[in-house]
Amino acid sequence: MRSGGCSAGSSRPPRLDPFALPLSFEAGDAAADGQVRYIELFAERLVLRRSVAGMHMALNMPLSAFAGVAIRLDAGVDGALPTVAVVLEHKDPGLALPLFVSNEADEAFAEWNSWSRALGVPQLISDDEGGWREPFARLGGVRINSVRPRRRRHSCLKRRRPTMPLRRKGGRLTAAAAVHRGEHEIIARN
Asked: For a Cys-Cys bond, which of 40, 61, 82, 118 suits 18, CB 3.0-4.6 Å?
């Protein structure tokens, strides 16, 4: 069950669906015999098969061994269009796995987010030192954002609390307001 070849008359390889795991596909590999390696991608692991100098090998690695899903920008050379690639990054650059390549940045960003969610690995971008970093602040497995105010209309207590005080403005003390000082009684008695 191999997928990844082009259909007849199509110049674009089929799109890998991150939410349809497990997947089997082929990818280019300059060091391998035949310049190709075979990948089986599961929800929690990856099996990479290739042969080098006639020796067949299969690497069975957990997805936790990968740093995350990175986005790479490649400038076009000799008039070619620039491309954006979504890559499953590993410490060893030879084990990095391209998942999606496109000329459209919007498509690539959507795929980057989808692959990160489907595989449960962080999103990565390149930093100034040539390494990888996460673009968003995280605390463990939780992404940290600024606190947003709660919306009352979806609250479970909405029906128990009146909404009229939300529409009223707070009072303001003006210079014309009467201030009574030195009074003994606030309530008039009859």
From this structure: 118
